[in-house]
């Protein structure tokens, strides 16, 4: 009795919220109503908290189920944001959502497009840990990713790992392996892959010949004239000049999607940008040959390739025209390039932004006075025609123009003014390059460009915005 009395007295002095806890210990039946009342209030409070938390969760979360997460992955690939795929996958795992085998398709495709080798093999290991068997598309993406990252040995290992799953490499997989050898510039390894293709009962197609030309072009230790071998490969491709290789009506082999562009390692990947109708797939071998002429700066080989193209009865498409003009610019023949460009524009054929951007980039290489003047004229012609400029292309042009060591900095200033007019967002790295270029030219402090760039960099350097992702042009 003395103990119960002591407990009752302590309960009277205790906080009201603790009374239900001590009710059973004290044996006080009068607290039963209070206990049920507090339980009801606690239930209401818990329901309110759950509703608030769920509302905040709905506001912050971007996907609820597997289908929504898969849509997010495809949207990231379309927006060219492959560096966010790993974060989305981690969020999906933390939400307790089990990925399906089809979920790894956009993950591997995005890693291939973004050349993210480590993430690609992370997702590949996740597939195997979950018991999923990779399909042909998964292996094609892995091999192509290895090729784009110059990891041709790992590409051969991936093809050998297909045997562990009881799979036989198909022609597309071997073509991707051949493209990996082309990226790395390994003609001997490429010849071994060609032998493997023929032993498997397949026939070389135009994508195989394009990869062989790329292997000769990109080899590090060039022995003799590389165009002798390139011309030999081109003649071999022309000897197969059947309906499948060059001529005839439009076949299913001419219609490839953006994924096949990366799998085959075609030189038109960055030029097409997901628009398959921009270039003519029948000229795939000529695309690789003309690109080699421009990269190796050989106008003699260029004339030979163009003559072969005309003998086959074809008209150069816009990518061929871009490589022909780029070759003249790379060799310092600026007048010839401008004359040919004006002839193309006056012919009534469509003018695209990619044509101007390729020539502007090539003209700015070396930062010669004639080249920078040509780049300025091309940029003004681009603006006069009202052609749209993609933000990525705009950033690349300004990044290159900001590195001009001498000169009046007119190209960089013109690009910066265009960025401000169109409100194009630029990362801090490119803005800093442009700022250093202004400092090298001792621009007065009252200059509006210098004031705007200084204000932006000062805002990014402050503690409040030190962890943000704000970009100039978006303010």
From TrEMBL:
Residues 87-216 form the PROP1-like PPR domain. InterPro entries: PPR_rpt, PROP1-like_PPR_dom, TPR-like_helical_dom_sf. PPR repeats lie at residues 100-134, 135-169. It holds the Pfam family PPR_long. One of its GO terms (cellular component) is mitochondrion. Keywords: Repeat. It comes from the Eukaryota. PANTHER family: OS05G0145600 PROTEIN. This is PROP1-like PPR domain-containing protein.
